[in-house]
Design a protein that fits this description.
The protein has helices at residues 12-26, 28-36, 40-66, 74-85, 92-104, 119-128, 147-154, 156-205, 225-230, 237-242, 258-268, 280-300, 308-332, 337-370, and strands at 71-72, 272-273. With 371 residues, the protein is mainly α. It has two domains: 7-273, no CATH class; 280-370. A two-stranded antiparallel sheet has the order 1-2. The longest helix has 50 residues, at 156-205. It is elongated, with a radius of gyration of 24 Å. The relative contact order is 0.09.
């Protein structure tokens, strides 16, 4: 018997908008480009609105409002609320409420976009269909005290249409008349909305599917530098789920995270303050614990018998891990330079350990391929 979803379970407003904007992006936009071409102004307008709305989601909705990783002055709040609305991802209060539920119930039934219900459910199915009763918005009482957030929530629809569609059309009209207005609406408006939305959707789907879990394997979130390139740095998702109150997702200086650099620059000009950072030693301890957990799993109950050489290599790595952990435990009781030196030694030991483990995994893979 074919599966049929009752019409009452379809969110017709969301479905019509998401499907309609995508269809316009793949039909009307190419037709416009074919008919009129595209110049530097339209490309620049698309890029400006893409960055403004994308960063308003990652800087404002996500790291400021959802996780309170820093404090912002009203110009930053106002900008991210205006251009966050233009992303058409709901008001900040609604977005944050869903996101906090996601972190509280990751990979469980109460997670609004749990990847355990399927890739497409996590990507956008949870928006298209109403499969459960609408949960109460009872986890944003702290944000509801803010007059700006209440204002944006109340006037979300006119703000989203005005900033997201009418403003780029107006700028296009000022530049090139009616043709420019149409180009601004289609490119910096509709196509940009589609791109930014699927950027966000990929964080919920692909960032829980591909990549590594160096900090914790207790949930599906993964670190992926490839995804970070397309999501303003949100691709370092395993770190984020383990340390959600850090304003950084790419915690290393060289990791691609335009969101953290934007927040840092805003701090330099005193528009934000109170940036929250997880101490280096806590990050290191999480990596140590996760590596020991994985080693214990492989050594304790491997899916297939381990070759003796691989077992010896993994046991040696486990002993090294125990020594690193013991050294760090001793350093925690100290203070000053000795603790700093111990942290540096632990980092160097972890780097060497990663090389050993990679070699062990390669030997294991070759042995199983031959076997």
């Amino acid at each position: 018997m074919p599966f049929r979803l009752p019409a009452t379970r379809i969110n017709w407003v969301n479905s019509s908008f998401l499907i309609g904007s995508a269809l316009v992006s793949v039909t009307a936009v190419p037709l416009y480009l074919w008919s009129y071409g595209v110049g530097p102004f339209q490309l620049g307008l698309f890029a400006a609105f893409f960055c403004a709305t994308g960063l308003s989601i990652t800087v404002g909705y996500h790291r400021l409002f959802a996780h309170l990783t820093f404090r912002a002055r009203w110009p930053v709040k106002l900008f991210t609320l205006l251009f966050g609305a233009a992303a058409f991802e709901n008001s900040a209060l609604e977005w944050v409420s869903d996101h906090r539920k996601h972190h509280q119930h990751t990979d469980h039934d109460d997670d609004p976009y749990s990847v355990t219900h399927g890739f497409w459910h996590a990507h956008m199915g949870w928006i298209l269909f109403k499969l459960n009763a609408e949960p109460p918005r009872d986890n944003v009482a702290d944000l509801e005290k803010d007059a700006l957030l209440r204002w944006q929530d109340r006037y979300y629809l006119p703000l989203s249409v005005g900033v997201g569609f009418l403003l780029p059309a107006l700028l296009g009209w000022l530049h090139a008349g009616g043709v420019g207005a149409l180009g601004g609406l289609l490119l910096a408006g509709v196509a940009r909305v589609t791109a930014v939305q699927h950027m966000t959707f990929c964080i919920n789907s692909l960032c829980h599917t591909i990549g590594r879990r160096p900090y914790s394997s207790r949930c599906s979130a993964r670190d992926s530098w490839i995804m970070a390139l397309f999501t303003f740095g949100e691709g370092y998702h395993n770190y984020h789920h383990e340390f959600q109150y850090d304003y950084r997702n790419g915690v290393r200086w060289w990791q691609w995270d335009p969101t953290k650099w934007t927040i840092w620059l805003l701090e330099r000009v005193r528009l934000v303050r109170g940036l929250r950072r997880v101490p280096h030693e806590k990050i290191l301890l999480a990596q140590l614990a996760e590596t020991r957990r994985r080693l214990a799993t492989v050594l304790g109950s491997p899916p297939r018998p381990l070759p003796e050489r691989v077992r010896e290599m993994l046991q040696a790595s486990e002993a090294r891990l125990a020594a690193i952990a013991a050294g760090w435990a001793a350093a925690r009781a100290d203070c000053g330079n000795r603790a700093d030196v111990q942290i540096d030694r632990a980092r160097a030991g972890m780097a060497e350990l990663r090389r050993e483990l990679r070699q062990a995994w390669r030997v294991l893979a070759r042995a199983r391929a031959v076997g």
